[in-house]
Amino acid sequence: MLNKFYLLLLISMLVLTSCEDKYSFTFDSPKKISVNQPLTIAVSEKNNKKIDKITYYLDGKRLENHAKMDISNQRLGKHVLKAVVAYNSKTKNLTNTIIFLASKEPVVYTYKVINTYPHDSGAYTQGLEFHEGFLYESTGRKGQSSLRKVDLETGKVLQKVDVNSKYFAEGMTIYKDKIYQLTWQSKLGFVYDLKDFKQRNTFHYNQSKEGWGLTHDGTKLIKTDGTEKVWFLNPDTLEEIGYIEAYTNKQRVKDLNELEYVEGKIYANVWQKNIILILNHNNGAIEGIIDLSNLEKEVKKSQRLEPNDDVLNGIAYDDKTKRLFVTGKHWNSLFEIKIFKRD
Fold first, then answer.
1. Element (H, E) at 5
2. What angle do CA 172, 254, 291 make, to 5 degrees?
């Protein structure tokens, strides 16, 4: 009888302890929020049990003040919120994912063709840049990839080096006296001498998914990987040192491809779309959309384009004369355009 008594007492104590230890927390935060709004987050316990302390983190950085946080200077896109809850001599980690959106909708631009120049219809254009009076172009596809120097007026290829047939070349940019060129899925980039096109080095990218577009802002290389992310690379070490994400006030835009840096903004082609995005360099906000849908129709008047393949892809900017050039994969024309806001 005594043993039975102790057994019942032990069971009751275990049940009591179990009930006392059972806490149910709720981590309240919005799933999406515009960066022009204050962010409020909170943790509550379902049965109003005592919480000793809560420490909040945003992307691993401790928040000193979580009440109505100013997020106006944060990059757009996905972020991780974390709450470390201390209670009853224990701790529990809670996490939420939140998306920061642009504060306003993008401006829509249209265009006017200023000049039309010949372009090699055999060039599967992946990257384009204007430098010291000439166009430099990276072309893709395995066995057809190349790096070229091209005369703007005639479209004649003045200098060319073929890329090893096992690589599918992608975007390129010129930084100081070197040319940097990406490959698609090999996670490998090439560094060439600007004058003689001799390959001087290679580099790897490990964080970004693939190699798509490439440009620079004068201090960092800027790279896309086919997602909504735009990566920044240290030009000395070529390591990825951060990224932004392309978002409007409503949603992300992925498949970012060829890039150009224009007057403090990042211009980005969207694969298989006849648009160019104008991105805020600091937070990724899509501030403008250039509608070039009629440009493809113009090209189709003089040649047949392969659907979903011979698409708009190629942006170059002459910062001295403020000329903007665009073309596409296998297009027989390159266009100088001027953009303006749509009425």
1. helix 2-21
2. 80
Average pLDDT score over the chain = 93
Q: Within 10 Å of residue 69's Cβ, how many Cβ atoms?
A: 17
Neighbours of 175 (CB within 10 A): 19
Paired residues of 224 in beta bridges: 230
Tens-place pLDDT, residues 46-105:
999 999 999 999 999 999 877 789 999 999 999 999 999 999 999 999 999 999 999 999
Q: Which residues are registered as beta bridge partners of 336?
A: 115, 325
Identify the residue with better confidence: 259 or 4: 259
**pLDDT of 343:** 81
CB 233 within 8 A of CB 240: yes
pTM here? 0.90
Amino acid at 88: N
Domains and CATH numbers, the chain: 23-101 (2.60.40.1080), 107-341 (2.130.10.10)
CA distance 264 to 266: 7
Asked whether the CA dihedral 120, 123, 128, 132 is positive or negative, the reply is negative
| 3-state class (DSSP) for residue 14 | helix
